[in-house]
Amino acid sequence: MLTAALMPKRLEFLSELVPQGTTIGLLVNPTHSTAAQMIGEAQEAARAKGLQLAVLNAKTESEVDAAFATLVQLHAGALAVLPDPLFLGRREQLVALAARHAVPVIYPLREFADSGGLISYAASFTAAFHLLGIYAGRVLKGEKPADLPVQQPTTFELVVNLKTAKALGLTVPPSILARADEVIE
To answer: Do residues 130 and 80 lie in contact, with contact meaning Cβ atoms separated by under 8 Å?
Structure first.
């Protein structure tokens, strides 16, 4: 689903939302199989944007709490959450911590923005499942799976929660609103 490859775009959105934020936190589960790759992609993207990246490791609920405390101590301008099943399962906790600490956060799935998170940018699961259905149909009609090309997502969703932006005292730039697939008011 190109999760690591989307980090430059996520950092771009954070830079537009919080232009004064020169330090960005990166919440990562260090036990995730692709954690090192995703951190590397994020560090490269941050360097290209002239941002400092603070990697915050969390693999348990209490470490997620501690990561937010560290983020505040670092005076980070925003936070990017890397995709991980742990974080999806702790969606309510992450959104609540972001609100309590008044931290602008970009999330890896739209479900976070639906739950009150500020912004999310990710490949569209709806489009991916549609493609999966087409592939299943082709196989059921007799095509060999080995003959089907591997495809990557081509549809991405930007979801912005204006209620959360208002609560954080942020004005979402028109450039982001114009690109948003959904704006939650």
So the answer is: no
- The 3-state DSSP class for residue 52 equals strand
Tokens 């995730």 locate to: 32
Q: Which of 56, 44, 49 is nearest to 80 (CA)?
A: 56
- Domain residue extents for the chain: 4-123+156-184, 125-154
What number does CATH give the domain 4-123+156-184?
3.40.50.2300
For residue 169, give the H/E element and its range.
Answer: none
Q: What is the pLDDT of residues 130-165, one digit of tens each?
A: 888 888 898 999 999 999 888 877 789 999 999 999
φ/ψ of 7, rounded to 5, equals -60, -40
Q: What are the DSSP calls for 93-113, one per residue?
A: HHHHHHHHTT--EEESSHHHH
